[in-house]
Amino acid sequence: MKVIWASDYQEVSKRTADYIKAQILMKPNCVLGLATGSSPIGTYQNLVSAYQNGEVDFSKVTSVNLDEYFGLDGEHDQSYRYFMNHHLFDHVNIAKENTFVPSGITEDIEQETQRYEQLIRDLGGVDLQLLGIGHNGHIGFNEPCNEFVPQTHVVDLGESTIQANARFFGSVENVPKKAITMGIGTIMSAKKIILIASGQDKKEIIHRSIYGAVTPDVPASILQLHPDVTVIAAVD
Ligand code: F6R
After folding, report:
1. Residue 37: CB within 6 Å of ligand 1?
2. Considering only CA atoms, which of 29, 15, 16, 13 is closest in space to residue 94?
3. Arithmetic mean of pLDDT over the chain
4. In 10 A of CB 62, how many CB atoms?
5. Most buried by CB count within 10 Å: which residue of 2, 34, 54, 215?
6. Nearest alpha-carbon partner for 18 in 194, 212, 138, 205
7. Is 25 strand, coil or helix?
8. If you measure from the C-alpha of residue 90 to the centroid of ligand 1, how many angstroms do you get, rounded to a whole number?
9. Is 234 helix (H, G, I), strand (E, B) or coil?
10. Is 67 a catalytic residue?
11. What is the structure's pLDDT at 161?
12. What is the 8-class DSSP label of residue 6?
């Protein structure tokens, strides 16, 4: 595991965007695993600027997102599909049909999890997976629990996650209580992983994740066992 201590959010965003640009340069038809939330917004802004300056070409890139709320369609402004269109896809030359986010409005949610897992396999797996981290150590929507869940699956969101997301939905009651997420095994099968975090409130969980015991109680701790993880964090 390589750890880069950055000075602030801007540096995290710039360095992360540089890794993603390098990935696309090395393999123009790469598969990017993408995340939502506040952590990657600056990274996406840097990527949009790089595209506008002619430094990066997304035309052959495919993307798969980590997760989606259950019950929200892509037009809902809190859906992760909407987030990705708004922050990245609408501003670069990625082909929309090559951008994948789990469907939040599927009739058969179990079938959707299997379809998504198979889709990632059919794409040949993820070349570079970008991750944020929750205060409880969650990655994607893999919440602390008794065992690591390997594949894409349905989750009941943890109380702290629901509370943390209430600001986006007006009230706790409006926050979806379920989501579809890549599993820990899905994430771990990415060839390269970048975990980003900013803010003093993430300091403790970053330290527990990278220096503490590997346990499903801190889902991000499993990353210690992956052969190619870079943590880029500004938490002091
Ligand atoms: C988002 C995701 C989540 C977030 C995490 C941190 O797709 O999978 O695991 O990365 O909740 O969120 P922020 O960056 O808002 O602190």
Report:
1. yes
2. 29
3. 96
4. 20
5. 34
6. 194
7. helix
8. 21
9. strand
10. yes
11. 76
12. -
Per the CB < 8 A criterion, the answer to whether 187 and 225 are in contact is no
Instruction: Note if 55 is an active site residue.
Output: no
Q: Is 85 a catalytic residue?
A: no
Q: Is there a contact between 3 and 193 (Cβ–Cβ < 8 Å)? A: no
How does residue 187 score in pLDDT terms, banded at 50, 70 and 90? very high
Alpha carbon of 35 to ligand 1 centroid (Å): 7
Q: What does the pLDDT look like over 68-115, one tens digit per residue? A: 999 999 999 999 999 999 999 999 999 999 999 999 999 899 999 999
At a CB cut-off of 8 Å and minimum separation 6, what does 209 contact?
Answer: 133, 137, 195, 218, 220, 221, 223, 224
Single out the catalytic residue among 87, 138, 142, 153.
Answer: 138
The Cβ of residue 108 has, within 10 Å, a number of other Cβ atoms equal to: 9
pLDDT of residue 92: 98
Rounded to two decimals, the pTM is 0.96
CA distance 149 to 10: 33
Taking alpha carbons only, the member of 58, 50, 54 closest to residue 29 is 58
* 174, 208 contact by CB (below 8 A): no
> Using CB atoms within 10 A of its CB, is residue 12 exposed (0-12), middle (13-18) or buried (19+)?
buried
